[in-house]
Amino acid sequence: MTFSLAAVDRNTGALGMIITSSSPAVASRCLNIRPGLGAAASQNVTDPRLSGSLLDRLAAGDNPRVAMDTVVAEHALRDYRQLTVVDSAGRSAAFSGAGALGRHHHVEGDGVVAAGNMLAGPATITELVRGYESSTAREFEQRLLDGLAAALAAGGEEGPVYAAGLLVYREVDWPETTLRVDWSDNPYAALTELWRVWKPQRDDYVRRALDPAAAPSFGVPGDL
Fold first, then answer.
1. How distant is the alpha carbon of residue 36 from its chain centre?
2. What angle, 0 to 180 degrees and rounded to 10, lies between the N-to-C axes of helices 123-134 and 140-153?
3. C-alpha triplet 65, 37, 181: angle, nearest 5°
4. Which is nearest to 91 in space by CA: 38, 138, 47?
5. Full strand arrangement of the beta sheet holding 92-96
6. I need a labelling partner for 116 at 20 to 30 A (CA). Which of 2, 35, 43, 128 fits?
């Protein structure tokens, strides 16, 4: 019921993830990034604890393949899970359990990993990666959105999707972009519109945190 992509931006070191699903509020359950370390997703029949376990293994010194193999081996319900992880060096690993729903597929790449279930076909995931990697957009967030657009054009899920999310950590230890569409008939369009609104203000909100005296005002009543 879900497909996602996690990546490290080779130009900036930023970590980012994008996801869409037929299930509501998918980004709240499935996406997990620790700045400077890596990004991980738990999906299919989701157990949000597993993405944290993968990141714990990275923090302990495991590479993504060892982290994945360890977490999967220790998890008795592994057949229900689909997991991905990429570290800040760009190494990646994925796992699709025997009970992954419908047509399912995953791709491990250099600096990118993607997986999905209940797919129209495996091209959804290969196009998700291709669309991201071939995008010439300047902004990392836009390249992630371009990947999602390509995946949807390739068939997407077997049925309609209703939720989507975009999460990016860049230069600070909080998410500079965290956008969610928890329920919509067209979550890609809604997510794209959120990015359009957020993009020109993103860096200013970081400045507000780091140097309030130099931060711009957006003219909102009571705004500082």
1. 15
2. 150
3. 95
4. 38
5. 31-34, 38-44, 81-87, 92-96
6. 35
Helices (H), 60-174: 64-74, 123-134, 140-153
- CA 203 distance to own-chain centroid: 20
Amino acid found at 47: D
| Amino acid letter, residue 135 | S
